[in-house]
Write a structure and sequence with these properties.
139 residues, Heat Shock Protein 90, 2 helices, single chain, alpha+beta
Length: 139
């Protein structure tokens, strides 16, 4: 990731999420690795998160060439690749794995074009009732 500046937009007041942390880490790693593979060196990659209704909405975006038109759903199929006959290594399973993980959390993942250029991959995670956090006692 040294060839891509990473921009984070993660507000300090993001709610807690009940999820399998290792699996969600795998989703983020897969999405960030894809962004580095398909985005020219020197272009930014970013992660944003915010509360939207009753879900946490997470977006991994890039400033690359974007998605092939009409491929926004196809790329989540097993063995699908973003570019045909690509020299970029990979098996075409990363996004299918991401989708299976997010669906196991009863949520959704999808891809969109990111104007003026680039792609964004968005997934949601359910929000449970937030625990009450007691303020720390001061001595």
């Amino acid at each position: 990731m040294t060839e891509h500046p990473l921009k984070l937009d993660l507000p300090a007041n993001l709610p807690l999420v009940r999820c399998d942390a290792l699996l969600i880490e795998r989703v983020l790693v897969n999405l960030l690795e894809n962004a580095t593979k398909y985005t020219p060196p020197g272009t930014a990659i970013g992660v944003t998160a915010n509360k939207a209704d009753e879900v946490l909405r997470v977006e991994v975006w890039d400033q690359g060439p974007g998605l092939p038109p009409g491929q926004e759903r196809v790329i989540f199929e097993k063995f699908a690749r973003g570019q045909r006959e690509s020299i970029i290594p990979g098996t075409g399973l990363g996004l299918a794995i991401c989708e299976a993980i997010i669906e196991a959390h009863d949520e959704k993942i999808w891809a969109e074009h990111r104007p003026p250029h680039g792609a964004r991959f968005i997934f949601t995670l359910p929000l449970d009732e937030q625990p009450v956090v007691e303020p720390e006692a001061r001595p």
